[in-house]
Amino acid sequence: MSLIRAIFGFSLVVVLTLFAIFNRESVTVVYSPAYHSIDLPLYLIALCFLGVGFFVGGLFVWLNGTDVRKAKRKSEKSLKSLEKEIESLGLDPKKPGAPPADDLFPALLSKPNPALKKG
User: Per-residue confidence at 23, pLDDT binned at 50, 70, 90?
Assistant: First the structure.
């Protein structure tokens, strides 16, 4: 997986570098009629828009994950309260529980019926 990421990242850097090299001419940017215009290289404008889009997309992804993070915090809180309850009972939460009581399966512990015995 890291090899795929490295190949993708390297190819993205190469493409962006070639874009910047081939689009060096200046473009006039008028951001408001009341202010002066600015001359900027075309690649700088394009890369700024790509960066803003990246951060806006990341913000939307982060906002969509609020339900997952909320559920995770709730389950962690529940787990901690259950561990405290186990400790209050005097048990170690890291060790497995005691074996079941002997009377749990009385049929297995009873002596065999001699009348059913053959021979």
Answer: confident
